[in-house]
Specification:
heterodimer; A: mainly alpha; 5 helices; about 75% helix; elongated; B: mainly alpha; 9 helices; globular
């Protein structure tokens, strides 16, 4: 897509906004619609849009595929890690109430971390999928 | 009242889009229509007040899935192979399954009634108790992340596993770390 001047300029303006919106959806999921899954997909869409317009090879230079593979595992580990942490603090697996002095604060911390884990896994897996399906040039 | 008309109109458009996809021979057209199908689904979910689901449907169905289909088409073919007549056994099976589904519909509780089984069992507990236990205004997040934390952990693992499976099947695992992609194609 070397010659699509309009697409290139519009996307340059849109991609940061898409990513900002993804972060908003991620961390505002407690109060409005959204959460880790949606945020992860939207964040990955930012990468995918970049890859569609500037080429997959350039996206590979920006977003390292092996880093994405590690991050997708890290997200699941983070989620399960919260469960283990709550067990170590004397509660059941994934019982966030024991993570802080105040049960409600503990719930908030737990939800924030696991949503981040979900977002990490979803965003990196979507990027991996795009890399796998994109036509090699 | 107007919301019912919107629901019905959206459902009819969904059926129409699905039919056009089924008879479509040009796969690029079918992929684009499936994107439209997802968008219609998302609008329907908004009408049903399931904003979180609509969000996911629009992002995954309308966005990422369409792109992945297009990527697949770019590596295969844009035209479906020509059809060889009607498969009568298939048609018979479809009619049987369809009539069973319609028969099953007669047993479904009415749309949006307050005394439906889904509203009477745990919904009250979640609505009232979650604001004391978790104090997260978005009920969907409270249920998904806390009460149903095990399910969501499972879902995340499924997504991770799917990513791994795609890497194994398409065999690009090694190649993309040092960009020797062109060698194998």
């Amino acid at each position: 897509m070397e010659h699509h001047q309009v697409l290139r300029i519009v996307s340059r303006f849109l991609i940061p906004l898409i990513m900002l919106f993804a972060l908003y959806v991620q961390f505002h999921g407690d109060y409005g619609p959204g959460g880790g899954f949606q945020a992860g997909v939207i964040f990955a869409v930012g990468f995918i849009l970049y890859g569609l317009i500037y080429g997959v090879e350039r996206l590979r230079q920006v977003v390292n595929p092996s880093l994405m593979r590690s991050l997708s595992a890290l997200g699941v580990l983070m989620y399960a890690g919260v469960g283990v942490a709550s067990m170590l603090s004397g509660g059941e697996f994934l019982n966030y109430s024991v993570l802080a002095e105040d049960p409600v604060a503990g719930q908030h911390i737990g939800i924030l971390i696991i949503e981040f884990g979900v977002g990490l896994t979803v965003a990196s897996t979507m990027t991996i999928l795009f890399y796998a399906f994109a036509k090699p040039y | 009242m107007i919301i019912y008309f919107t629901d019905i109109a959206l459902s009819l458009m969904l059926i129409l889009t699905a039919m056009v996809i089924a008879v479509q021979r040009n796969l690029l057209g079918a992929v684009m229509l499936s994107g439209i199908y997802s968008l219609l689904c998302a609008s329907l979910f908004v009408c049903l007040d399931a904003v979180d689901v609509a969000f996911t449907e629009a992002a995954v169905g309308g966005g990422v899935a369409t792109i992945l289909f297009l990527g697949t088409l770019a590596q295969t073919d844009y035209e479906k192979k020509s059809r060889v007549g009607i498969s009568w056994s298939g048609l018979f099976l479809v009619i049987i399954c369809g009539s069973l589904l319609v028969y099953g519909l007669s047993d479904i509780p009415g749309f949006g009634l307050a005394d439906n089984p889904v509203q009477t069992y745990l919904a009250d507990v979640y609505l009232v108790q979650s604001q004391k236990d978790i104090a997260v205004p978005n009920l969907v997040t409270a249920v998904l992340a806390s009460y149903r934390g095990y399910d969501t952990l499972g879902e995340t693992t499924v997504i991770f596993t799917a990513g791994i499976a795609v890497l194994i099947l398409l065999g690009r695992g090694k190649a993309d770390s040092d960009t020797v992609e062109s060698k194998e194609s």
